[in-house]
Amino acid sequence: MKPFEPEIVAFCCHYCAYTAADMAGSMRIGYPPNVKIIKAPCSGKIDAIHIMKALEKGADGVYVAGCLEGDCHFKNGNNNAARRVKYLQKLLDEIGVGGERIAMITMSAGMGGRFAETAAEFTEKIRKLGPNPAKTAAGEKLEKAIA
Amino acid sequence: MKTESVLEKVLTSGELAVTSECGPPRGSDADKVREKAEMLRGYVDAVNVTDNQTAMVRMSSSAACIIIKQMGIDPILQMVTRDRNRLAMQSDILGCYAHGINTMLCLSGDHPHFGDHPMAANVYDLDSIQFIQAVRKMREEGKFQGGSEIDKPPKMFIGAAANPFADPFELRVARLAKKVKAGVDFIQTQCIYNIDKFETWMNGVRERKLHEKVAILAGITPMKTVGMARYMKNRVPGMDVPDEVVKRMGGVSKEKQPEEGVKIAIETIERLKNVEGVRGFHIMAIEWEQKTPEIVERAGLYPRPKF
Amino acid sequence: MITAERKPMQEIIDYVSPFNRILLVGCNECVTVCAAGGRKEVGLLASALQMSFMQRGKALDIQEITLERQCDPEYVEQLVNYVDRYDAVLSMACGCGVQEVARRYKTKPVFPALNTKFMGASEHQGIWAERCQGCGDCVLGVTGGICPIARCSKRIMNGPCGGSTKGKCEINPDIECAWQLIWDRLKMLGLEDRYEEIMEAKDWRTSRDGGPRRIVREDLAS
After folding, report:
1. CA distance C121 to chain A (A)
2. Which of A119, B298, C74, C78 is the most buried (most CB within 10 A)?
3. Which of B146, B131, B159, B187 lies closest to B3, judged by CA?
4. Complex ipTM
5. Mutate which of B85, B86, B124, B189 to disrupt the C interface (most C C-beta within 10 Å)?
6. Rounded to an integer, what distance in angstroms lies between the CA atom of residue C48 and that of residue A92?
7. Does domain A8-146 fall into CATH 3.40.50?
8. Is this model's pTM higher than 0.95 or not?
């Protein structure tokens, strides 16, 4: 069996995390290829349904990366995003997927190092948790059907 | 005289009245009621019998009242509007009156939230003021709250509670005025520790001459320990315990605290005897009923007048 | 508005577990405004249910639809094109909407996904509080615009009781004492005298106590 490689979706704010990812690249700081970046105009633009759909479609972990406290370009989009993540964590706990599969992370545009570090940490955390249970069971069933 | 109530007779005679309290047991043992009431025999004019106090299920006030009445002691039937609608309350009044109970206290009662059945429906068909009106109507007009005639109407001497210390303070006299308007005969107050504030309230009561229309019995609860003083200060809503009182209780050794509590109670009674409009005392020795006779004696309220 | 909250997921999952095809119906009215059962919440619940079922290796066929008003037969009728294709309906409307769907589609199991809470107003973003109990005989005109029936824990008509402390209710410091609010407002209106008028025992027949209520407007009823 293939070793488990988690698939991570990172919703990154254009004003901070997305630029930080760029910075990591130009500084030649590597981060796990598991992390798939989706650029957003603001972390507050990420709706609950975006996170849910990412998990439903097979992501093992999802995080929202926004600006540092007090630094949101749109005043409080990052706080709204953090509250939404917290709300969804409870919902994911309730349905057995587990709230720890999602996270809110903050950084500034200049923190290329932090971007790489948090991407690696989150990937390791999800690796330890194992595959998204929703995906696994559905996949097994599919495999059986094919067999 | 409006009723056969001994309490009314004492108050009419001009003597200071003394009432106390008996909480029915959390079970069906009638002897427990008798024991508590027996301790008070001869020392008080009437004994309040609480109605599921603090929203905990206890033997019904009406049943415990009947037991006490059969002992030859006068009970005061407490009734809260929390647990029963107007049909049930009026029928209980008829039943109790049939057993010779002629004095009662109309209360709204603690919210079920505080008790052992927080999941219970919260009735409050009437509030305490509307309840006073209803009992008054039964007595004066011989009619039920709903309007139909009563065959042999119950003549209840009607009491209510007043808390001079709750917020907003500026409404405390006005709310008493509403109870007087509704037809209350006597008032038992919340336990008094802040005598200055009580006197301020009494000034307001006298300004409006309410003390001429209603007999006010001052509430007295002796404190057993400094812990109890602190608990009442911090945890009991609508209770006003000044820091000096807590300090005084804490200023003596643990063994001497009960005696200090009794002393404070007696001093309070002595001081309130001189307040115009205070017509007696309601001594609630919570879980300490055996102390009531001593307090009555030491406060110079013994022997009680005979009627 | 009528406010509601989503039921615990386990309860919803238990309702729909026996079925494979679910019609999940939201409502565009009150429950949208209180963020309990509008289009957005329908989407979230569908996704959550999908993941819950996937974990048990079960594929759920779930159709999302949000009606303009679930308490109105005219809109409930719109489900007629879908309902036959599904085993059960899961409604994210208030209790009125759930019942309307159940009444129209008598042979289809209908389940509530929400707990209907109260008639209230929005105090702040994300916070709703009870304001009205629908007693059928409004007293707001004499209580300074604050309802003692809905907002006093003991629904006392001649308050405040002895448990009012610093403007808060004795049962919970998050609850404002309705009678403190009434008194403050009467003062602002210069109507202090009104406080001493006794509010007579209420006739609860106009409330739920008189049995389920109906309104008939003869000029409109056909």
Report:
1. 22
2. A119
3. B159
4. 0.94
5. B124
6. 8
7. yes
8. no
